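Severity: low
Component: inverse-folding endpoint
Summary: output formatting inconsistent between runs
Steps to reproduce: submit the following structure tokens with default settings.
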């Protein structure tokens, strides 16, 4: 009796069949630092979930902190960081237009070890704020600086200006933040072009 040989998958087929979560991606940066921050956040009683492809730590259905990895540093983002007391000045504002979040930026595992007590204190403070129901009072969209590339189009096109004014304040802020986040004017202008059909449809970025 001849036994039919089982075909062995090729190496590239094996790689395609394996599904990596964002945390398991072989090219992700700062693995030791990520693990240390995960342990710190988890030890404070938070539940880890993957949101936006990143490790996010929640209390119930509320986001408390998020681990972000960049080329030059790893960050722990506090969603309501603007409300945190930060006597050691460890937190950074995230861009010109982001009002609520703050980042704790770290460069190495040694940084995390050295600042572990302070990091834990900030996480616990963020948890207490969430439990208290504290909210960041956001500026109205009309109080925000509208990117020049968007403002120019609003000034030149009355119909677009009317459609933008009809959006909810949250949708207006979303477009202002997203457009302003681009560093290059050409990129900001491109984002305006892409946003216009959605604005006319009365939709926000994520609708």
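Observed output (run 2 of 3):
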């Amino acid at each position: 009796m001849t036994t039919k040989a089982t075909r062995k998958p090729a190496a590239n087929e094996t790689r395609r069949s394996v599904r990596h979560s964002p945390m398991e991606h072989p090219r992700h940066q700062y693995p030791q630092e990520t693990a240390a921050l995960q342990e710190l956040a988890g030890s404070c009683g938070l539940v880890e979930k993957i949101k936006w492809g990143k490790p996010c730590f929640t209390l119930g259905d509320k986001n408390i902190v998020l681990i972000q990895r960049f080329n030059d540093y790893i960050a722990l983002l506090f969603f309501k960081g603007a409300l945190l007391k930060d006597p050691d000045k460890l937190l950074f504002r995230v861009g010109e237009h982001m009002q609520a979040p703050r980042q704790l930026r770290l460069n190495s595992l040694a940084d995390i070890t050295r600042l572990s007590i302070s990091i834990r204190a900030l996480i616990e403070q963020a948890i207490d704020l969430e439990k208290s129901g504290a909210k960041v009072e956001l500026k109205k969209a009309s109080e925000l600086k509208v990117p020049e590339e968007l403002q120019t189009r609003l000034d030149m096109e009355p119909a677009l200006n009317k459609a933008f004014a009809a959006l909810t304040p949250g949708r207006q802020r979303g477009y202002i933040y997203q457009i302003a986040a681009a560093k290059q004017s050409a990129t900001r202008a491109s984002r305006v072009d892409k946003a216009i059909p959605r604005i006319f449809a009365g939709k926000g970025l994520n609708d």
